Amino acid sequence: MIDRVEDAVPLARALLAGGVTAIELTLRTDAALESLRRIRAEVPEMMAGVGTILTLEQVGDVIEAGGSFGVAPGMNPRVVAEAQRLGLPFAPGVCTPTDIEHALEAGCKALKFFPCEPCGGLPYLRTIAAPFMHLGVQFIPLGGVNAANAATYLKEPAVLALGGSWLAPKDLIAKGDWQAITALASEITGIVKQVRS
Question: Of 60, 56, 3, 57, nearest to 26 (Cα)?
């Protein structure tokens, strides 16, 4: 989560230096949209999207700021429909089989599983995903994922990608410790290569 716009470009560059090529900026701070604009302008090789999209208006704001994708913590059919109408690739949040059914009905197959660890982690994900796997549904777990459990998640066929704030902790951003963030990014990209190649 970026609190200061001036941290956006150095953060994106630090992650990219460690092999992470996509960043989700959350709309939990006032700095998110301007941070997105700066990353798009100064680090165009970084795929930059926005999370915590909760309203129809925010969908338009994300597109105007140049967002490559959108993510939400829950499954709001109106927000999903607006993202589809405006052409923003969108992953709604799901936590139950009913959420997954609503997402499928809205035409979504890439789903954010949130909050994954508090909901039961990988054993729970396997259970709720099983009835839908033949439909091509894939999940992006967030909420409790970290370097210690990333490999376990990445081995799961239902997992498309991972996300988490552990790659860019607030204290490291506040200190401007971009080398430490690059090291964390390198660690996770190494795990991804080991598991998925």
Answer: 3
